[in-house]
Amino acid sequence: MEFEKIKSWIAGQTKEMVALESLLTAIPAMAPESNGDGESKKCDALERWLVSNGITKLEHFDAPDERVSSGFRPNLVATIEGKKSDYNIWVCAHMDVVPTGELSLWETDPWTVVEKDGKIYGRGVEDNQQGLVSGVFAALAFVKNGIQPEHTIKLLFMADEEFGSAYGMKFLIKNHLDLFKKEDLILIPDGGDPKGETIEIAEKNIWWPRFHIIGKQAHGSRPDLAHNAMLAGCELALKINEMEQVFNKKDDLFDPAFSTFQPTKKQANVDTVNIIPGDDVFFCDCRINPCYTLDEVRAEAKKRIAEVEKKYSVKVEVTEMQAESSLPTSPDAHVVKALTRAIKEVHGINAKCIGVGGGTVGAELRNLGYSCVVWSTMDELAHQPNEYAIIENIAKDAQTIAWMAAN
């Protein structure tokens, strides 16, 4: 009966959810890498809102950053004490957002929430404010109704997720790992599907190499005097792509089920047509199934680089822009079973476990032996123009989180 009261209360809070989304959207919390000033102003507004609504046990774990006006990147933890302390229920959401991109592609002001047809539009309303607001209202349901949750709820509001989490989750793990217990149920509402039926328990390994090919420049009519860096780069790009045939084991947990080695970004080389370039740079985005290690990938790439260097008389320098490995969460983990049951009990949906090619802060925790899941009910509009969140989904996910805390 207590949970039905909580569930009903959450269902009646959609106007307040939109109001909180509006407050947060109006404060562009972008990283210095995006010419922003960080998350401090947004965190301050959120903190005032939480206190005014009765969530008062708040702790800061801020990361120093001289690039922003406040001098730090905020990481805020809100605690709602439960009856039991055997484990905590975490909802970990990030406060930073990406830039708007091309403004002409937006139909509304990205920094002003517009409500239409059951949706709200604005930068950050889904990524990651939907999960943030769902967590807040799940916790608030207990506070406002005078009900103590069975287990303590911890809301983590993180910085710097969009640029690698050096000032967010990675900072917390390095300096405040005692925040988390191995028994805790850790939910990261930063990815999902329109039905809320997929629970992400694994991520592909990520390898982003930058290849710098150094050859010899010459006139376009004298290839005999040149070592064509672009030609060598093109062949190397194809050789890296062909690694999909080497690391070819499939894992149906992922979509696509195979590892991907894709050449992507290419830098400009020469300024005119009649110059054979002696310098060329390109990048690859490689997403590798966890059955392979990054060291295996590096070794194979090294062999292919050597072949290109010999054939074209060039030198290839490799810089790793990103290299992340992630252990999976077991499908039998407590957090997976608890969330699966919550989704079934509250919404009648049979959830399933999946893996993803993208990276989340979950990888940092999983690699240290903490079980966590990524889940939400969303249309996945992250980083797109006209980003929106479905209002009903905010409430739906809040009810699911609340069930986990109440049982």
Short descriptors:
six-stranded mixed beta sheet; alpha+beta; 407 residues
Query: What topology, given as strand order, has the largest sheet?
Result: 1-4-8-5-9-18
Helix content: 25-40%
N-end to C-end Cα span: 12 Å
Q: Approximately what portion of the residues adopt beta-strand conformation?
A: 15-25%
Largest beta-sheet details: 6 strands, mixed
Helix and strand composition category: alpha+beta
What is the N-to-C order of secondary-structure elements (H for helix, E for strand)? HHHEEEEEEEHEHEEEEHEEEHEHEHEEH
Mean pLDDT: 96
Oligomer: single chain
Q: Low-confidence segments, ≥5 residues, pLDDT <50? A: none
Coarse morphology: elongated
Number of helix segments?
10
Beta strand count:
19
Report the C-alpha radius of gyration, rounded: 24 Å
Describe the structure.
Helices cover 31% and strands 24% of the residues. The chain has helices spanning 2-11, 14-25, 40-52, 129-144, 169-175, 229-241, 294-312, 334-347, 362-366, 391-406; strands spanning 58-60, 63-64, 72-73, 76-80, 84-94, 114-116, 119-121, 151-158, 185-188, 198-203, 205-214, 218-219, 260-266, 275-276, 279-288, 315-324, 352-356, 372-374, 388-390. The strands form 6 sheets. The protein has a 6-stranded mixed sheet with strand order 1-4-8-5-9-18. A 4-stranded antiparallel sheet has the order 13-15-11-16, with helices on one face. Strand 6 and strand 7 form a beta hairpin. The longest helix has 19 residues, at 294-312.
